[in-house]
Design goal:
By secondary structure, this protein is of the alpha+beta class. The protein is built from 3 helices and 24 strands. A hairpin with a 2-residue loop joins strand 18 and strand 19.
Length: about 350
């Protein structure tokens, strides 16, 4: 009886072992790989660009500095105000100059009186000389006195006019229709000919000032396209270079180039900083969808669906990424046309992992 029970137990154990062995040999289904979508690497024209910081400047701007010295008695405008040509902006105390004008006017009147007297005297001496009453010498002396006083009077008149013209410098006026800049002075300040009062900018006919590195000097030329963008990368205006400086700026060691700006005053202002993307040329380059590109540890790479032993695997490939072209990245190295890059589930992939291309890719 014991031998029969032992045989039954061994039989059951054998069946269990066979069952376990069959279960281990069953396919897991992992050999098919992860389903992914792919896209072929294609060639497309890609602009070759460089980005610089540009300063917007007005073709017509001025820094106001007084031509006379004195206390500032009035400021009649404020920063940012639109002013018309000839409009009064500031006043400098003119009382000292007004006193000089009055003093010179009195001197002019004195010279005029002496001139009028000598004019009558020379006429009287002429008549006496012609009548033979006086000598030629007295007549000549009268003529000489008349000439001297005439010159003195004319000199005094011109000096008075100069002093009056000087008086106009005590009122600061706008030279053209413009926008008032910052006003660093205050009423009561003593200003001199070296004091900056404010700036005036005509907020139209703007230009973008761009400093291109000297190593690009051989490539820069008039007519090159420039894209002006704001700090967020939004396009403001497309323009072209129309001026290239003949010398290198000693401060920036760059070559100044200018491009006209026609944007509305609301979109662009004098002294505003923008980004300028200079387009040097356009070359055919490999492009891939943005979704295919992954960055890790400062390295940019894509997963290429490559054949390996008759199966597709995800092959991690380092690439050099250029500018974006629509929804694609340009690739300067690492891929060739015809390669298929994986554009889905890239966050789950590892190098050499089996993949399965979904239909319709």
């Amino acid at each position: 009886m014991k031998w029969i029970q032992l045989g039954v137990c061994c039989g059951l154990l054998g069946l269990a072992a066979v069952g376990c062995h069959k279960k281990e040999d069953a396919p897991t289904g992992g050999g098919a790989g992860m389903p992914v979508q792919t896209a072929a690497v294609t060639m497309a024209p890609v602009p070759q660009t460089s980005e610089y910081v540009a300063t917007i400047k007005s073709r017509r701007s001025a820094t106001l500095m007084p031509q006379v010295s004195g206390p500032l008695t009035a400021i009649k405008v404020h920063s940012g105000e639109l002013v018309k040509q000839g409009q009064e902006l500031m006043e400098i105390d003119p009382r000292v100059q007004q006193a000089m004008v009055q003093s010179q006017l009195a001197t002019e009147r004195q010279k005029k009186a002496l001139f009028d007297y000598n004019a009558m005297e020379v006429e009287r001496q002429r008549k006496l000389f012609e009548a033979g009453v006086t000598s030629r010498e007295l007549y000549d002396q009268a003529q000489q006195s008349y000439a001297n006083t005439k010159a003195d009077y004319e000199s005094a008149t011109q000096l008075r006019k100069t002093q009056e013209e000087q008086l106009t410098y005590y009122t600061i006026r706008a030279a053209f229709d413009s926008v008032v800049g910052d006003i660093p002075v205050h009423v009561g300040d003593y200003v001199t000919t070296s004091t900056m009062l404010t700036t005036l900018d005509e907020n139209k006919d703007l230009e973008a000032y761009i400093y291109v590195p000297t190593e690009r000097g051989a490539q820069v030329k008039q007519g090159l396209s420039v894209d002006l963008t704001d700090t967020a990368g939004n396009l403001i205006e497309k323009t072209k270079i129309n001026f290239i400086s003949a010398e290198v700026d000693t401060t920036t060691q760059g070559i100044l180039v200018k491009a006209p700006v026609h944007a509305a005053a609301e979109a662009m202002r004098t002294a505003q900083l923008v980004k300028a993307r200079v387009i040097w040329n356009t070359l055919p380059m490999a492009v891939v969808p943005v979704l295919a590109v992954t960055r890790q540890g400062g390295q940019t790479f894509v997963f290429v669906a490559a054949q390996q032993n008759g199966h597709l695997v995800a092959q991690q490939t380092a690439v050099t990424v250029g500018d974006t072209v629509g929804n694609n990245y340009s690739i300067s190295s690492g891929l060739k046309p015809g390669d298929r890059v994986i554009v889905s589930s890239t966050q789950f992939l590892v190098n050499g992992m089996p993949v399965m291309q979904l239909p319709g890719a």
